[in-house]
Amino acid sequence: MITITAFRSVPPLAQGLVRDLRVRWALEEAGLTYRVNLITLADKNTAAHMALQPFGQVPVYEEAGLKLFESGAIVLHVAAKSDALRPTDPTGAARMTCWVLAALNSIETAVTDLAHIDLFHSGEAWTIERRPQAEAFLRLRLEQLSDWLGERDWLEDRFTAGDLMMATVLRILRHTTIVAEVPRLDAYLKRCEARPAFQRALNGQMSDFEPWAA
Ligand SMILES: N[C@@H](CCC(=O)N[C@@H](CS)C(=O)NCC(=O)O)C(=O)O
């Protein structure tokens, strides 16, 4: 049985964005059954959890003695099990890996630069200078991504784990209109979110949360 570790409760601003969503979505696309081990924010720094996730984060993935951390590594592991996420031809599979890494390395870094300012440092003096730079760089990356997409429905010629990862990264910007202002990306994200597997994953994460007590 596959077990993923997720948080039992997080602040509302994080609900629906916690990175176990990526793993749930991949497992739903692949049609694999799994159970969810819910931990508290206090549990994340215990020795037992740090032995599974060296940075005290979620998600964690366990399967028959295999223990994985990092959502990208986990999604790639799940993708290797399912044609629904990874093309069977080697070229298509390699291109899928490119997009998983592009989402995490070329886009998520720019996304989180801005999101951290907005969500964790809003109003602090240093953000007055830094935020416009972070937003401009992010907008450049998103325009480049939009140019790549062109008239395609997906990043390549079919849905892959690369789209799954890219969509979860773009969703981090839901507190802004930045994605909505790029029509192709807006449509792309909506296309990804309309997938039944995504809806099942999101509903699963949301229904697992206990009410947040600040
Ligand atoms: N690079 C990691 C990031 C994981 C991550 O940021 N997890 C967040 C929840 S979305 C977390 O556990 N935060 C608690 C913390 O960092 O202490 C991955 O993709 O798995």
TrEMBL record:
PROSITE patterns: GST_NTER. Signal peptide: none annotated. Keywords: Transferase. Residues 22-86 form the GST N-terminal domain. Pfam families: GST_N. Gene3D superfamilies: 1.20.1050.10, Glutaredoxin (3.40.30.10). GO terms for molecular function: transferase activity. InterPro entries: Glutathione-S-Trfase_C_sf, Glutathione_S-Trfase, Glutathione_S-Trfase_N, Thioredoxin-like_sf. Coiled coil: none annotated. The keyword Ribosomal protein does not apply. This is Glutathione S-transferase.
